[in-house]
Amino acid sequence: MPLTGGVDVPPRDREVLASWTRSISVRAGLAQRARIVLLAADGVGTNEIVARTGASKPTVIAWRRRYAAEGLGGLEDRPRPGRPRGADDVAIVLATLEAPPERMGVTHWSSRLLARELGVSNVKVADVWREYGMQPWRQESFKFSTDPQLEAKVRDVVGLYLDPPENAVVVCVDEKSQVQALDRADPAVAAGLAGEGDS
């Protein structure tokens, strides 16, 4: 097909192509292809079509040829080879939102654990977490311990506070340094306790 010659577009195809260029629900790429074919049908040269549509010269030539060979169906997107990119992303996001299986003995996912579980690379998991702003290690919801001895340990610790041994001093040490949980939880209680230590 000559590069500057017109493209033969039957009246019915011209109506469909024109509707694609006006529709807000048609993908931008398909609307651009329709404009390319309509301009070519009106005898507009390749360089002018490039200027009017913003497409590259090889793109204009390719779509004109595809339409000439296949008609309207040739302007549709063709499936690309390989696995769709979004499939892994969705699986990673959904898995991240679920708690890890009990057999793993952890309270939240790491990129390596989730990657191993889903059969993808940990770099892929980290990329998806970054893209979607996910930080499972910083979730603000309560995490249950996987320690089978937890209940007994909690009872022992709470028992020390509620009924300390005679002449004993019960001291609490937060495992996170420089975090004043009492100050954040109830400033009035913290102030009261500070005052007791002064006397």
User: Which secondary-structure class do the elements indicate?
Assistant: mainly alpha
Largest sheet: none
SS summary, helix count: 10
Fraction of residues in H or I helices: 55-70%
DSSP E strands, number = 0
Radius of gyration: 33 Å
Order of helices and strands: HHHHHHHHHH
Number of domains: 3
Terminal CA distance: 99 Å
Principal-axis shape: rod-shaped
Q: Which oligomerization state do the chains in this entry correspond to? A: single chain
- Beta-strand residue fraction: under 5%
Average pLDDT over all residues: 76
- Give unreliable regions as ranges: none
Layout: helices, strands, pairs:
Elements: H1 11-22, H2 28-41, H3 46-53, H4 57-70, H5 85-97, H6 111-118, H7 122-132, H8 150-162, H9 181-185, H10 187-198
